[in-house]
């Protein structure tokens, strides 16, 4: 990847751990201090990526092989990097991304039992080995997080009418699946301690926010000390 001026912060964790809330809180603080922010998500973030997201997360998608799922995740990501992430970094902006390749390694590599190697190989080929400057891994209780995600997605589907935009496909997986996802996340954090910072997200949203602000300020020397 070409030299970039901006900073790339990814947020990882189980569905329902509160990533979206924390990204919004951090973005508000940084914007208030005059920092140019791009907040985005995966899978998605682009027109093509959002179509892939709908295919991947909708419960009506059945019979999708684990390798096809893996390929679709990276198809969305490659477009996302080209269209959103790399241009923002080149402009000197801070990118806050809800999930990146660590999610694929955790969910497809761990949860689907594909292993880390195919994920990391595709990352090198399709993403140019782009890595976040900092990854916030929000560690949470498996059962509580998944139940929260299920309630949120079902409520959202109901609002949209007749089940449209149903994103419960992964939430239908077993607790054992999400246990493997969490363990793979912790394995990634142990492997890359300089990049991945684990935050206990079991407390209140405000408590978690304060922890994240402290990490962002310390690791990236950003003016994020004010809540």
Task: Compose a concise summary of this entry.
With 227 residues, the protein is an alpha/beta fold.
Structure description:
The chain has one domain (7-220): 3-Layer(aba) Sandwich (Rossmann fold), CATH 3.40.50. It has helices spanning 19-32, 47-57, 66-90, 101-111, 116-127, 142-160, 175-191, 205-220, and strands at 7-13, 37-41, 94-98, 134-139, 196-200. The chain is globular and about 45 Å long. The model has no long low-confidence stretch (mean pLDDT 90). Helix 1 (19-32) crosses helix 8 (205-220), helix 2 (47-57) packs antiparallel against helix 3 and helix 3 (66-90) runs parallel beside helix 5 (116-127). It contains eight helices and five strands; from the N terminus they run E-H-E-H-H-E-H-H-E-H-H-E-H. A five-stranded parallel β-sheet has the order 2-3-1-4-5, sandwiched between helices. The chain is α/β, with parallel strands linked by helices and 227 residues long.
């Amino acid at each position: 990847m070409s030299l970039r001026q901006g900073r790339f912060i990814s947020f990882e964790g189980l569905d329902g751990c509160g990533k979206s809330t924390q990204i919004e809180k951090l973005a508000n603080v940084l914007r208030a201090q005059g920092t140019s922010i791009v907040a985005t998500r995966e899978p998605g973030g682009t027109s093509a990526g959002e179509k892939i997201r709908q295919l991947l997360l909708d419960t009506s998608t059945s019979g999708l092989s684990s390798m096809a799922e893996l390929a679709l995740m990276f198809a969305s990501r490659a477009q996302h990097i080209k269209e959103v992430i790399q241009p923002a970094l080149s402009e000197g902006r801070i990118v806050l991304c809800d999930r990146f390749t660590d999610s694929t390694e955790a969910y497809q590599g761990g949860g689907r039992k594909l292993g880390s190697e195919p994920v990391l190989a595709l990352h090198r080929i399709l993403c140019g080995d782009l890595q976040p400057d900092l990854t916030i891994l929000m560690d949470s209780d498996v059962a509580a997080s998944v139940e929260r995600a299920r309630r949120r997605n079902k409520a959202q589907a109901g609002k949209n009418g007749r089940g449209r935009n149903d994103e419960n496909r992964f939430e239908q997986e077993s607790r054992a699946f999400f246990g493997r996802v969490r363990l793979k996340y912790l394995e990634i954090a142990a492997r890359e301690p300089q990049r991945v910072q684990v935050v206990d997200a079991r407390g209140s949203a405000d408590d978690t926010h304060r922890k994240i602000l402290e990490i962002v300020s310390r690791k990236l020397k950003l003016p994020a000390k004010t809540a």
